[in-house]
Amino acid sequence: MTTAATHHAPAALDRLRGQLDKAGFGALLLTSPTGRRHALGPATDATAVLVTADGTVAGAAGHPGAAAAAALRAAGVTDGAVATEDELPCDLLGQHGPADVRLRPAPDLVFAELACCEPTEPPAFAAAAGLAAVGYTAVMDHLRIGMDVRELSGNVDRSVRRAGGLLGWYDPYGAGGAAGSDLVTVRGHDPSTARLTEASPVRYVLHPLLDGTAGYAAATAVLSKADGTLRTAGDVCAAATAALLAALRPGARLTDGYAAFARAAAGHAATCRLVGLRGGGASLPLRPDSALVAEPGMVLGVRTEVLAPGRGAVELAETVELTAGGAEPRAGTPLRLVELY
Amino acid sequence: MGTTRPTAADRVPTADAAGVTMPLVGFGTHPMRGEQATEAVLTAFSAGYRLVDTATRYRNETAVGAALAATDVPRSDLFVTTKMPPDQVGRERLTLEQSLTALGCDHIDLWLIHWPPGGHPGVTSWREFVRARDEGLVRAVGVSNYSVALIDALHRETGVYPAVNQVQWGPGDHDPHFAEAMRERGVVLSAHSPLRSTDLDHPVLLDVARRHGRSPRDVVLAWNLHHRVAVTVKSAHRDRMERNLSAAGLTLSPADVEAIDGLSTVTRADRRP
Ligand SMILES: NC(=O)c1ccc[n+]([C@@H]2O[C@H](COP(=O)([O-])OP(=O)(O)OC[C@H]3O[C@@H](n4cnc5c(N)ncnc54)[C@H](OP(=O)(O)O)[C@@H]3O)[C@@H](O)[C@H]2O)c1
Fold first, then answer.
1. Pick from B184, B33, B58: which is nearest to B112 by CA?
2. Is residue A114 part of a domain?
3. Domain B19-265, what fold?
4. Given CB atoms, is B58 within the 8 Å cutoff of chain A?
5. By the CB < 8 Å criterion, does A123 face chain B?
6. Is the pLDDT of residue B264 over 60?
7. How far is the CA of B78 from the centre of ligand 1 (A)?
8. Would the CA dihedral through B199, B202, B205, B206 be positive or negative?
9. pLDDT tens digit string along B72-105?
10. Range of A271's domain?
């Protein structure tokens, strides 16, 4: 069953309404978990949320297609252009939606909404990233061969709590449905024993929350002196991540960051993504064909990975704030393969 | 002939850390940062602390450096401890230079490896530490959170024992075997988190405190000093800083010490190997 509720847009969405107006859209239909949470808060069970340019927010629960149509109806949108995220179930909308509503994908608009902060927001992100750095330390300082990874999560939990963070983690990929009490995702341990080994690099991604704001950091460490393959992957990941950050200058296209990363990692199996961090999670990646331009005030999650054939991968992440001077890392954790020996 | 009254700083006992005189009561700075850290360190100096404990990890070396620059206490009377985090293996000199710059110092009195890197002894780093000491950039080098076995491994590989091993140490952590192993190797045992790690409501501590007219915190600090264990204690409040420092003047009886030793929760199985 689909239910819909309508109310006035909170002040936090003022900027979005301005953007809609400027782009000639009458409304924005949000269907991703991050988008929905951003508009209606973390407790929402709406599967589609409509934000109109004149200040109405309508959320509807139930099957996504039907919910999208219900949200459109509830907000009284019967004609005009509506911006949508990419993963919109258009087929179902055809059955339920008002006939003369034109749905147009506008991923840049959604990304900009989740990346561009109000002046008061960057300090909250910096504090959340600082909390991620506390978690980083709680792992890095205690790593040892043979360590049970559950001990490691316990260390992060204790340290992050002591530093004022919230227990409970956000879903870093925005796939929805995930919940738990871990603050760190660990990879690279021996899956048969859950223990750390000398040869496999340990990758850990931190996702603590501080007052509803997500911290974002990840690191990779090897518990020995890295050998050739791993050292190369580490060096490439560090250089390509640095190139990505250097390319995120105000006025440049954000995708220049992707291009810089690809150039520096050429010849290696490597991936990177930039995500918008507002909305309490870190789900929405910048599309490679995005035309968005970097501007001061944006806060982004940066995530990079380079495979080390036969040895796993090197994975790094940071929370960066774009300032007039460029991309400023906020967690301040090492963006390189850490060798512990 | 005039006499000068001993100050709080004069009353703090000292230890010989590989030829360097180290106050046995130090001021801890974690987790303070920025102006709060600068203010607290300045207050601690004026209260009589002469050892300040920081670390690259604490991200407050610049703030501590601001206090070092602002205080009237001559640098030669102060003892600055900082620590290199384990993720800086292979970048020791760079890390030291960054610490020196942030602290505004031309030398550091005690430089510690903050944690054994990956649980290893960290021989590569230790060689760099010794080199920095030999070049006069640091006066003494040590470790933190190390077991006896790791310390022995450093000595085996380099012939140099750490001057200090800073570990969590309160009555609950009391392990005479470990303390004796440090003494035998000439390593000054240094306690971090002496108060935070202690059950301050334990009846034994409450009883000793009552009989001396002091607080259980004073008793814990005095107990450490009785064992010649250096204490690094943090407070953001002047009255507490003074109170903690005054524990140097509290003498416990052998019976008090024995009772507090008995609070150890260290079993044979979880002794630091
Ligand atoms: N090497 C390492 O791995 C390591 C690890 C941890 C700590 N350390 C170092 O050791 C230092 C001390 O450890 P710590 O800060 O964990 O623990 P601690 O010094 O044992 O205890 C500090 C706590 O006790 C409170 N406190 C201090 N004196 C008090 C008094 N007289 N009355 C009431 N409350 C009092 C402080 O609160 P207020 O500030 O509000 O007064 C603070 O909350 C650190 O600052 C750091 O420099 C090193």
1. B58
2. no
3. TIM Barrel (3.20.20)
4. no
5. no
6. yes
7. 20
8. positive
9. 999 999 999 999 999 999 999 999 999 999 999 9
10. 122-339
